[in-house]
Structures are given as C-alpha cells and as structure tokens.
Amino acid sequence: MDPYTDDLRLPRARLEPDTRATVRCRNCQATFSRRDVDLPTKGTLRCPECHSGPIDDLD
Predict the structure, then answer these.
(1) What are the distances in angstroms from CA 6 to CA 1, 3, 14, 15?
(2) DSSP per residue, the chain
(3) How many other CB atoms are there within 10 angstroms of residue 25's CB atom?
(4) Which domain of life is it from (predicted)?
(5) Which residue has better confidence, 59 or 51?
(6) What's the sign of the alpha-carbon dihedral 34, 35, 40, 41?
(7) Phi/psi at 7 (nearest 5 deg)?
(8) For residue range 13-26, what is the model confidence (pLDDT) as tens digits?
C-alpha cells in the first residue's frame, strides 16, 4: 500500500485567482491592477501613471 495514493485523489488548488486585486491612486484617481504598480524599491508602491506613492486597495 502506497501512502501517497490518497493524495492523488485530492482536488488540486488553482494557482491563478479568478479576480485580480485592483488599486487606485489617491492623487490622479487612476485605477489599475495591483500587479501593474511600479516597485522602485522593495515594499514601496508607485502609481504607473503619475508615479506618486499614495495607493489604496479597492473592494
């Protein structure tokens, strides 16, 4: 009996989410996908339109 055979019957998790996170720049009001933000340094998000820093998540 193989202990890993049960694992093959489990449902696989999806790696790609159905919806993407959307954010909005507080300065220019541009709305864009979170993956499109500029990352000049690790941990800092910048708007791809006006390159300002204040960005909010949308629900």
Answers:
(1) 10, 7, 19, 21
(2) --TTHHHHTSPPPPSS-SS--EEEETTT--EEEGGGSB-SSTT--B-TTT--S-EEE--
(3) 22
(4) Archaea
(5) 51
(6) positive
(7) -65, -30
(8) 666 666 678 889 99
Tell me if 55 sits within 8 A of 47, measured CB to CB: yes
Rounded to whole angstroms, the Cα distance separating 34 from 1 reads 47
What six digits make up the tokens of 55? 């960005």
Band (7; pLDDT cuts 50, 70, 90): low
